[in-house]
């Protein structure tokens, strides 16, 4: 089975939920015209990243009427977008939503909230507590939000649960200009290749661009095939929309040649984790 | 490791994108900049011209009667090379108007007074032309506090603020800043023959390596000593940094309410942008 993914590398306006929603809907129709079956947006694309005290102001409930236009835009395809989710008990999460054929089919709440150096997420957000796969146009898939992907257990769990596509939505800042490519890009490349190869799955990375308080987000969104090769890449620092294709036959071939998934000893992992925890 | 080399093309891409983004999203298209003839303001002009187009970078030359003639020539070389609009505003009468009755003012007071007078002129140009004041300070100056508070430190955005002086030199060479500017010793040009390095008592090469290890790499003083750095020099650099912390912050606010600006009233500068 083949699936065309659209990568929307955008530049959200900080704190402008309505404006960002409108531009999301517009991008979905552009992607649809280009033939996309899945449209991917970056982490907190609906709100911007450095929200601080704006978090409660831009928060939405899953059934928020303001999301109606975007939900409607998902008829005939899938839309994966991210914003601030407010739970019934008024906790705020960084969430990624998947709408497909006009229905909300999956929500992932960011589990790992970086709170060190330039990041301050735990001050403002509650943490999610699960990694679950879902069907994306019929294909088993999993969602990760930025820092989630840096914890080896997160892609591992999605891989073990059967994900053939792992999608990472990010707001990754541009840092370290000492070498040929950005330091941020070099580290992400390693993480994404690791994810694709170790779990023989497609790995999609969608990162935003634009500046907030002097911090630049570097873009460079890309698709890696199940062998870890980058098959599509958007430029750094520029807005863009590009399509790239996922082919489940290639997942099959990768797993045939290199059956690491088949050979994984989950019982051993969980027994050893139990032992380590007991010590 | 204290290699301060940077990829100039990548750095230029980030800094020009930064200038274009931070200027335009708040509804401006121009910047106003004080062009001294030194390397920092020259490089800032080259970056801003790339980011916004030369017609949107307005240079103001603000000589004082003791400023060196070379400074003016070097500033004009930048204006000509970039074809940016410019004005010359002699600050001598404005400065003398005050200092004439304050003859006792020492070199530091006079220097600070000039730096703040230039700030006043730039902010008036900002209002007159509808352009943001773009700052020219670099990371070395910020960390050492080698700026005049509310003088040359006053600006809306500052593209070189995370680059050490030696990195400013690298990038300037890459972007074609005139040789006469690249080759001369850095100077605040507040009096004849003044140079930064003589005044501070260290070279930028030395101090940049020390600051890079202390700040970027978070080395402790004893780790610095093990690396072969002179403890006295390292301590002096560290103390300059600590003593001038106030210059890098907003004024301290006395907390009396439940929600105090910047303490528990927390919004990014780019709120809603």
Q: Could you tell me the strand content of chain A as a percent range?
A: 25-35%
Largest sheet of chain B: 4 strands, parallel
Q: What is the CATH superfamily classification of the domain at 8-196 in chain B?
A: HUPs
Overall 3D shape of chain A: globular
Gyration radius of chain A (Cα, Å) is 18 Å
**What structural class is derived from the secondary structure elements of chain B?**
mainly alpha
Task: Report low-confidence residues of chain A grouped into runs of 5 or more.
Answer: none
- Order of strands in the sheet with the most strands of chain B? 3-2-1-4
The CATH topology assignment of the domain at 8-196 in chain B is Rossmann fold
* Proportion of helical residues of chain B: 40-55%
SSE order of chain B in H/E notation?
Answer: HEHEHEHHEHHHHHHH
Number of strands of chain A: 14
Global mean pLDDT of chain B: 95
CATH domain fold name of chain A: Nitrilase/N-carbamoyl-D-aminoacid amidohydrolase
If interface size is counted as residues with C-beta under 8 Å from the partner's C-beta, which chains form the largest one? A-B, 25 and 24 residues
Strand order, sheet with most strands of chain A? 5-4-3-2-1-14
Describe the protein.
The complex is a heterodimer of chains A (about 280) and B (about 270). With about 280 residues, chain A is of the alpha/beta class. Chain A has a single domain, classed as Carbon-nitrogen hydrolase (Nitrilase/N-carbamoyl-D-aminoacid amidohydrolase), CATH 3.60.110.10. In chain A, about 30% of the residues lie in helices and about 30% in strands. Chain A contains 9 helices and 14 strands. Chain A has a 6-stranded mixed β-sheet. The longest helix of chain A is centred in the first third of the chain and has 17 residues. The radius of gyration of chain A is 18 Å and the shape is globular. Chain A starts with a strand and ends with a helix. Chain B is mainly α and about 270 residues long. Chain B has 12 helices and 4 strands, in the order H-E-H-E-H-E-H-H-E-H-H-H-H-H-H-H. A 4-stranded parallel β-sheet of chain B has the order 3-2-1-4, with helices on both faces. The chains are: A alpha/beta (about 280), B mainly alpha (about 270). At the A-B interface, strand 10 of A face helix 1 of B.
